[in-house]
Design goal:
single chain; mainly alpha; 14 helices; 8 strands; globular
Length: about 375
């Protein structure tokens, strides 16, 4: 019994112990391992089996494996702005600003459908050859960049589809649909990401410290937000990335207004929010709105940032300490992690490859 309790990270009642032992002996899958169940049911079951420390680790973009539960490692950060980035033997398409010049959203859809084919083929080939899931070769792609390109001095403007909110919306919707595959499929082909939310258009040098204030409400709603709204409501984008800077004194990844009132309440967005890389640490290192990493982690979770990207030491690893200090509850962490786990189950990443149609794309070097 003690051995089984250690594996499950919590006390187990006598009846539950009998059930668990029978499951182990008979080789029957636990609910979270059962592909016949919905992603939400599977996420709820897995949540109940995790320790607080494991939950915190799974809220990081470099998510460590949990061997006792058969959960593999998972990296959330890949890029596919004009073809799968940072990989060889893939098709390199024109930069998005060039695609926008075509005014052809059907062509853009075909480009990103081909990109997702190649990503799936490369990913599964890597897994089969023992390389495993790694940064820049995973099933989560942080694409498209739908920030408005107003200043030609912005060094990443070529990643966007220009300055027109309507064109940006149409191109962005096509990108997401091409990457994620048919909405009625059992498994998502990839998880796309609308970035960087919101009012982010450089300059790069100030993005970790700038505070954008007194923006004209009409400009906010008619210029900066329409593409994000379209990707959420028309394309069903599975990730939204919050930006580095502050908007009216609040960091975007700590903004209840952006992440709760607009994104979830007004637009009814049900999927996950991911931070730009290092944005949670910025709360205490550059924006100075949090006193330390523990407070920054709690602020991020409470505001609605589900997943943290960080270069090295993840701030969200401090969440158990934040719980111990009464800054955030485990239930609030569960609400964030549930969305993260649903995303992984929706990819089929925890299921046998034979069950996932997208795993069958042939690989040719």
């Amino acid at each position: 019994m003690k051995s089984l309790e250690r594996r499950h990270g919590k006390k187990i009642s006598g009846i539950a112990m009998v059930f668990c032992m029978a499951t182990v002996l008979l080789g029957q899958p636990l609910p979270y391992q059962n592909p016949e169940k919905s992603s939400e049911e599977r996420a709820n079951d897995l949540l109940a089996r995790l320790t607080l420390e494991e939950k915190a680790a799974l809220l990081c973009d470099v998510s460590e494996a949990i061997p006792r539960l058969g959960v593999k490692n998972f990296n959330w950060w890949s890029e596919a702005l004009h073809g799968l980035a940072n990989n060889d033997s893939v098709t390199v398409f024109p930069e998005p600003i060039g695609m926008a010049a075509s005014f052809d959203d059907e062509l853009v859809y075909q480009i990103f459908s081909a990109t997702s084919d190649e990503t799936r083929a490369k990913y599964h080939q890597a897994v089969r050859s023992g390389q495993g899931n790694k940064r820049f070769l995973s099933l989560s792609v942080w694409t498209p960049n739908i920030n408005i390109f107003r200043d030609p001095r912005w060094g990443r403007g070529q990643e966007t589809y220009g300055e027109d909110p309507f064109l940006m919306s149409r191109m962005g919707v096509a990108v997401v649909k091409g990457l994620q595959g048919p909405a009625d499929a059992k498994y998502r082909k990839l998880l796309a990401c609308a970035k960087h939310y919101a009012v982010h258009s450089g300059p790069e040098w100030s993005r970790h410290v700038i505070n954008i204030q007194d923006i004209d409400p009409r400009d906010l709603w008619e210029t900066y937000l329409p593409a994000f709204k379209a990707l959420v409501q028309e394309a069903g984008v599975r990730q939204v990335m919050c930006a580095y800077q502050r908007l009216d004194d609040e960091p975007c990844c700590g903004s209840t207004r952006l992440l709760q009132k607009i994104l979830r309440e007004q637009w009814n967005y049900p999927y996950l929010v991911v931070s730009d890389c290092g944005a949670i640490a910025d709360f205490y290192t550059s924006h100075k709105v949090s006193s330390d990493a523990v407070h920054a982690a709690a602020k991020g979770v409470l505001a609605g940032t589900d997943l943290e990207c960080q270069w090295t030491d993840h701030t969200y690893k401090k969440l158990p300490e934040a719980v111990a200090r009464g800054l955030v509850t485990e239930e609030e962490i569960d609400a964030r992690l549930k969305r993260v786990l649903i995303g992984r189950f929706d990819l089929g990443e925890m299921d046998d490859e034979a069950l996932v149609p997208w795993a069958k794309h042939p690989y040719r070097s």
